[in-house]
Amino acid sequence: MLKAGVLGAGHLGKIHLRLLKQSENYELVGFHDADAENGKAVEAELGYKYYSSMEDLIEAVDMVDIVTPTLSHYECAKKAIAKGKHIFIEKPITNTVEEAEHIRELLAEHDIRGQVGHVERFNPAFIAVKDQINNPMFIETHRLAEFNPRGTDVPVVLDLMIHDIDIILSVVKSKVKNVSASGVSVISDTPDIANARIEFENGCVANLTASRISLKNMRKSRFFQKDAYISVDFLEKKCEVVKMKDAPTTPGDFDMILQNAEGVKKQIYFDNPEVSKNNAILDELDSFAHAINTNTTPIVTLHDGTEALRVATMVINQF
């Protein structure tokens, strides 16, 4: 089992602590939090060992799980890598693209593994359909959340939209050609609602909307491609696949048939795969353990995290 330590014991950090404790792939050694009072309180309440020194915790483990505020990701990662420790780092990977690229260079120099916590890659609804998403040419995403003071220290693009940016980059096999966007600050110092249009060199267009001041929660993406429409509900963990094929010569009574102006007939049919229940955060942590143990490439690499941050930064620079 890999010895694991967590940096950061906030809301998400405590979730990571609990899941690492129950994972069969890790031995949870303990955690460090910059707020000693909070660290001791978490130790007293939950029983995990608190390390007052980040350096001591890093020395004691094989893998460092970085769940600190984004501004400290870079320094935490540098310290862990310098000691030859594998790093799991929450999204966004760092505060700037330059920091992310430096972390990638250091990781390569030390020949260790790194994974970024883009957890929606492990959402069971996305997993159920991702192999059917083939060369989408139009993508529409909506990620809306009710207001929560936690997370408002960064723009909504880095808080929410970056999830969808990563998903889109994982399925569109083309370089970004152009980005246009607008954002509005309503209650925070940074934009709380944003819309972005990402154009790719292969002609694909993605339209993304993110808000953290909505009256209801929504996390939906729609992928349009030749002869297929695929919808993923990341929140409800549901998916829908609508496909078209050449209509049979003699359609059945209940067949759905469309005919275009040229007289070409297509049959519409539904091919909705089964969605398996899972814990996406546990799965991403366990997948990282597998990558370390087998010396293989993690599912969400530091390169992936860097590119998601790069596009997110391009969006923010439009405001």
TrEMBL record:
Database matches in Gene3D superfamilies: Dihydrodipicolinate Reductase, domain 2, NAD(P)-binding Rossmann-like Domain
Segments forming domain Gfo/Idh/MocA-like oxidoreductase N-terminal: 3-118
Record SUPFAM superfamilies: Glyceraldehyde-3-phosphate dehydrogenase-like, C-terminal domain (SSF55347), NAD(P)-binding Rossmann-fold domains (SSF51735)
Pfam families for the chain: GFO_IDH_MocA, GFO_IDH_MocA_C3
Residues in the signal sequence: none
MF terms (GO), sorted A to Z: nucleotide binding
Spans traversing the lipid bilayer: none
GFO/IDH/MocA-like oxidoreductase domain: residues covered: 156-216
Domain of life: Bacteria
Record's protein name: Gfo/Idh/MocA family oxidoreductase
Biological source species: Subsaximicrobium wynnwilliamsii
